[in-house]
Amino acid sequence: MRYGSSPGQAGFEGRGARRPSVLAAVALAGCGALLVAGCSPEGAPATGRGGSPPGASAAGSGSPGPSGSGTASPPASGPPAKGAVTVTGEAAKDLQSPWGVAPLPGGDLLVASRDKGTISRVAAGSGAVTQIGEVPGVEPGGEGGLLGLALSPDFAADRLVYAYFTTASDNRIARLRYDEQRPAGQQLGAPDTVFRGIPKGLIHNGGRIAFGPDGMLYAGTGETGVTGLSQDRKSLGGKILRMTPDGDPVHGNPEADSVVYSYGHRNVQGLAWDKDKRLWAAEFGQNTWDELNLIEPGANYGWPDAEGKAGRPGMRDPVAVWKTDEASPSGIAWAEGSIWMAGLRGARLWRIPLSGTEPVAAPEAFLQDEYGRLRTVIALGGDRLLLVTSETDGRGSPEAGDDRILTLTVR
User: What is the pTM for the complete model shown?
Assistant: First the structure.
């Protein structure tokens, strides 16, 4: 953990400052057009299940260097060195501890409340929020609770919603059938646990889940503050996991009969695929460097023996790093040639422009201190993103309307 005696110090997701004046009402009109169908990252359509993982290219271990080191100007194939972000509206407001978000076909959203253990539906256009049900067994505490959400790749047929959550004994992943014909608040079926036994703690529970372009389910976990778990290949803590939709190990994983896909992580809360189906992950550092990593199967990302660009043999260096007070990264998404990364303690949205696996310019910050702590980023296709604030999780400074889901256009 970033050791400290209070949540504002290193060791936690941290507190972020915000400028109150910028929270003048954002126009709600027109935001419904931004909420489009589908839940897969742009550039990562499902390509069938099983077999080899997406993103076959290997990345080198890298060498120590400054944050976001890269060429001064992008090659012709890369995005521009300088980007832009426009907040175009609010998809929702007055949310309580929102964490995971899953876009529904048609444009509505499902949103998980970490502390209430409930899932709500946000109507496109109006922003109306309706609770569809509670996930039984959720035990909130510290950074634990109801965390990531993902829709089944066959959601149109099976209506299954996957959830990562903390219980009294572990973190686990379950799927629940969503039946819109049942009364409001009772539309979730009983949870069918597909994977259990992920270590839990007051901190570093990971929690992001997503279906990859291979149709497999990926999960980012944390080491719960017990640093030795990250290098223990038999532990599920401090890992990225890859499994079938039923929770079984996938043929082609680094080790037979294991869901462990990569290890040496501290606390993974961001997963996204680029247009070439390469997997990227964001994670919290300790006292010095937060990281954006390009994930390769079987690779060791160093924690606790390395933090940031350490250049340690046998350990993979991050592609970009940040001082911990500038980031504390949670969700990420890929859009318009860049990774977009939400910062909690940093209270800003980072853009990392990429040409292949390399940054083409230094990371660029947007919305700094304007909306407080930022938790989740969702790509809607093209230049459209959703951005979820995290001011009501006990570490922010909530104002009227918090928490909210913002609609963005980016380049």
Answer: 0.87
